[in-house]
UniProtKB/TrEMBL annotation:
Keyword vocabulary terms for this entry: Acyltransferase, Transferase
Keyword Zinc: no
Organism: Cellulomonas persica
One Pfam family cited in the UniProt record for this chain: Acetyltransf_1
UniProt name for this protein: N-acetyltransferase
Amino acid sequence: MTVRRVTADDHDGWAALFAGYREFYQLPDDPAAVATTWSWVVGEQHGMTGLVAEARDGSLVGLAHVRTFARPSIGSVGLFLDDLFTDPAARRSGVGAALLRAVSDLAAQRGASVVRWITAADNVTARALYDELGAQTPWVTYDMVPQRY
């Protein structure tokens, strides 16, 4: 298996993996959101970089989407892992770990001080891997819907 940056030729394989990711998180079918995400990933827009894990036969078996973020409190940047997904048929074969290690390498190349991500509390399988390669933080995440006051 090889982990590399996504290319325009990866569209179909990436789209199948991203569909699996969206299904896992029970996101509704949204072709516009998928097309927008593809344009960001393949075009490296908004600081976004797409990585894919490619099996020996050339099929894509995993993806990771990362982006740079500022860390003003320490005058540094970090890399945020937005999405990580492994094809169910390839799980427990090292794909997730390989993608996370590639993300770590990319962060080091960019001089980032941290790789950060969030996951669902009940994502037990992924969390077992995350506990091996990262450290859970004490921070609580919030979302707020933008509106004018």
